[in-house]
Amino acid sequence: MAEQANKDEQVGFHKGALATLAKEREEMQKVLAIVEQLMQLHIKGLKDLGVDLVAQAQEMQKEAKSEKKPAGKKRPIEDMLRK
Q: DSSP letters of 11-59?
């Protein structure tokens, strides 16, 4: 009997954790959607100002290849934004 109660507690614990994590995931998706929307607004603003983001991205890719950085090492977003 005690063994069944312990199992029921564990099942309840895992179900509760999954419910909480599912809600957290929903909230994370909302935050991500807001961030994406803000990024698109800034991209549009830069395009309206005549900034060619595609050309800059291609230039950064060429620079990255010429620098021959160790595999797996990525440039921080702050470095990309300073150019």
A: HHHHHHHHHHHHHHHHHHHHHHHHHHHHHHHHHHHHHHTT--HHHHHHH
